[in-house]
């Protein structure tokens, strides 16, 4: 048995190389980067897993590593940066979004929805995997899972901490949320009923000036993208359309 076969495989890329000494893997190019404190900072060469066995998020570099794509079982790729060089692999189905002023969320949704129906694993990528491609994934979660922007963003941020959305992309996501969750038509008013008489089961006296509960409130000006992501356990979410429990609740950057 050769020396390399007796070594412990790298915990990040799974191949045999002297990762503790900073040696570059001869198969996938992974290496362990020492930080300024001389401790080992492990950087995964794999794309980030958003949903097991279905949705992955990464960079152009992730999309170009054929062996790692094969290791993760990825057979389809959604390229969100039309200007980037087109990748080609006979075993992978590619779909590139068109160059538009705004992110083509609906086009991406149709492709990803088909991937999910086909039970195919798909990688969504831009150049660095920080802004454009995460926004596409967030938009897909809002439309396919019925999650609001806050929940979708936190879900993606927890699984890929390097996500850093540009201001333009943030604005487009907020507009897309408003498009998906367009408020229902205002019901007709009934002049004979005074506003003070409507309590909806929340009893209050005439002197009680407290307001009624506000449902589904979301402030578009809240610092959603500037605060740290909250780790939300997966069981807080319900997949699919049939939900049996409530959820708690210019120019495009080339990334």
Automatic annotation (TrEMBL):
Q: Which GO cellular component terms are attached?
A: nucleus
Sorted alphabetically, the keyword list is: Hydrolase, Protein phosphatase
Annotated Tyrosine-protein phosphatase domain ranges read 46-182
Q: Does the keyword Hydrolase apply?
A: yes
Question: Which segments constitute the Tyrosine specific protein phosphatases domain?
Answer: 103-171
The residue range of the signal peptide is none
InterPro entries the UniProt entry points to: Dual-sp_phosphatase_cat-dom, IBR5-like, Prot-tyrosine_phosphatase-like, Tyr_Pase_AS, Tyr_Pase_dom, TYR_PHOSPHATASE_DUAL_dom
The answer to whether the entry has keyword Zinc is no
Q: Which GO terms describe its biological process?
A: abscisic acid-activated signaling pathway; auxin-activated signaling pathway
Q: What is this protein called?
A: Protein-tyrosine-phosphatase IBR5
């Amino acid at each position: 048995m050769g020396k390399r076969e007796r070594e412990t495989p790298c915990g990040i890329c799974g191949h045999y190389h002297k990762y503790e000494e900073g040696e570059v893997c001869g198969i996938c190019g992974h290496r362990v980067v020492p930080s300024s404190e001389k401790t080992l900072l492990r950087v995964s060469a794999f794309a980030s897993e958003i949903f097991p066995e279905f949705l992955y998020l990464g960079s152009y570099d992730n999309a170009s590593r054929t062996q790692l794509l094969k290791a993760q079982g990825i057979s389809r790729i959604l390229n969100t940066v039309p200007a980037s060089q087109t990748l080609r692999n006979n075993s992978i189905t590619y779909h590139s979004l068109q160059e538009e002023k705004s992110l083509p969320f609906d086009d991406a949704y149709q492709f990803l929805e088909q991937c999910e129906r086909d039970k195919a694993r798909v990688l969504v990528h831009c150049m660095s995997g920080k802004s454009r491609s995460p926004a596409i994934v967030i938009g897909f979660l809002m439309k396919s899972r019925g999650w609001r922007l806050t929940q979708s963003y936190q879900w993606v941020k927890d699984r890929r901490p390097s996500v850093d959305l540009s201001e333009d992309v943030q604005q487009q996501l907020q507009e897309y949320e408003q498009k998906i969750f367009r408020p229902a038509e205002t019901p007709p008013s009934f002049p004979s009923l005074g506003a003070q008489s409507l309590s909806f089961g929340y009893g209050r006296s005439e002197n009680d000036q407290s307001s009624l509960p506000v449902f589904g409130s979301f402030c578009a000006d809240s610092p959603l993208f500037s605060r740290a992501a909250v780790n939300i356990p997966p069981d807080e979410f319900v997949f699919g359309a049939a939900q049996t429990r409530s959820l708690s609740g210019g120019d495009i950057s080339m990334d």
